[in-house]
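Prompt: Have a read of the protein record below and flag anything odd:
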Amino acid sequence: MHETKIVQIASKFDGAFIEPVHRQSEKRLVFNCFMHVLNLIDRVQPNVVKQNENTLRFFVDSVFFRKLYDAGHLSEISMEQLEPKDFVVYYNGQDKTHVGLNVAPNRVESKWGIGPLFRHGLWDVPKSYGDTLRYFKPPEQAKVDAFLRQTLPMVELSEV
């Protein structure tokens, strides 16, 4: 897809860091950033529906993530409390637009749309992801799985 072009563009900016991660699912086009951080890649079937010729709609998306937050399953932390595997959530206004896993200071691993999985600098993301960051401790996997089964009963979920 476009990962080579993204890496080439990033190389033109001093301090930018973007590298593809190649351990992703063979079905990478039907998974998104929310599914990546919630450890649902290759575990959710069905996970996407086509809304029209050019639009895919994921069952686990920013709306599901907001519901998980509203239900009290995500604990917000400060940047100073951030540890590996904590969530880095990008906001555009009030909208959660993107999420990644903290992997090191100023380094995030995230799935970009229906494209590649990248490791990148905290702010080395598309501008459309927003200009505000918030940080969260990930919920226990059993809680995520139970919430998904409750919220989306038509979706099949395989075990970890």
Remarks:
- The chain has one domain: 3-152.
- Residues 3-152 form a domain with the endopeptidase fold (from Nostoc punctiforme) fold (CATH 3.90.1720).
- The CA atoms of residues 33 and 112 lie 6 Å apart.
